[in-house]
Amino acid sequence: MMKRPILILLPVLMLLCTGNVSAQFSMSKVAKPKDRPSTIADSIKQTRMENDYFSLARYKADRRALIKERNTIEFKASLHASQTQYENWSAGGDNTFASRAEMSFAHKFKKGGYTLDYKLSARYGFNIIPVETDGSKDAKLFKNEDEWVVKVQNLYIMHKNWSYSALVNVRSQFTTGYKSRTDKTKKTNFFAPGYIDLSLGLDYKHPKQPLNVTLSPISGSAIVVMDESLARAGLGGVPADRFDDAGNLILRHKHSKWELGSSVQVKYDKTFGKRDTFRYQTNLFSFCGWTNVPTVRWENTFDIKATKLLSTTFYIQLYYDKEDILAGDTRAKLQAKYSLSVGLSYTFKNK
């Protein structure tokens, strides 16, 4: 019974193995999607590959370095004193005391081709010497040095070592000066006289040496007397009160006198030694009026440092002013002042 189904299925299997079998599939075309922005890329925040880190400490340090590069500051203060005391000294002698204080401040600002240079200096000194009055000796204090100077100079580079220059120089004293220790006739006072010098010109700076020469073909020089009594007397050459033979006032006094002319200033300031043990400074200023003879002022200072605080100073000043005529003379003469002192000195420099 089992053989019949097998015989029936065998022809069918043979037919399947020998026949060609084929099939066909059809695929519909899929439309190409339109280009559209990627939503993934949009969700990512784009950043620049650079460092935006800011350091406040670094900024302040750079700022300090820049300020120091542009600004040069020097401050100097000194105090000199001497005393002589006698007790039961058979050879005789008078007790004396002398003192002098000095101060100077200099600041130079430089940016590009522009330079602002200003200086302030002052000195004041006095001595005490016994003076015999009415048969007895009394110690009398008398000032022997009194001066302050303010100088402002603007420079703009013209070519290499040459610059355009505008200079203002003001000079006067602090306190009232008298004729002598016993004669209290007033001779000078604050801004009586005062000297003002204005100049326009060229400034030359030596490339290797600390030498400056200022040539000013156009300059103005003024003498100012703010004290009323000294102005009436014509101190420093300012116009004084003039009277006729009957004693009537015909010309009232003035407090100032201006003059035009030309000026030359030479400045040299150099230190020697590794520790600046020796310093030489000279300053020559000459003003020549277009109608009068020149006024000349020449200062020389020699500083020798024994230690950081102990110094010896030798100072020389030569001065000639056509209007400054001493009592008893008929014309002006060359004036000279010398001083040698040992004392304490302190100097600060930022460079």
Tell me the layout of helices and strands.
Layout (H helix, E strand, L loop, with lengths): L2 H16 L20 H4 L13 H15 E14 L11 E16 L2 E20 L2 E24 L2 E11 L4 E2 L7 E3 L5 E12 L5 E14 L3 H5 L9 E2 L5 E3 L4 E17 L5 E12 L5 E11 L4 E11 L14 E15 L2
Antiparallel strand pairs: 1-2, 1-16, 2-3, 3-4, 4-5, 5-8, 6-7, 8-9, 9-12, 10-11, 12-13, 13-14, 14-15, 15-16
Characterize the structure shown.
The protein is mainly beta. It has one domain (81-349). Helices cover 11% and strands 53% of the residues. It is built from four helices and 16 strands. The protein has helices spanning 3-18, 39-42, 56-70, 228-232; strands at 71-84, 96-111, 114-133, 136-159, 162-172, 177-178, 186-188, 194-205, 211-224, 242-243, 249-251, 256-272, 278-289, 295-305, 310-320, 335-349. The chain has a twelve-stranded antiparallel barrel with strand order 1-2-3-4-5-8-9-12-13-14-15-16. It has a two-stranded antiparallel ribbon with strand order 6-7. It has a two-stranded antiparallel sheet with strand order 10-11. Strand 10 (242-243) and strand 11 form a beta hairpin. The mean pLDDT is 84.
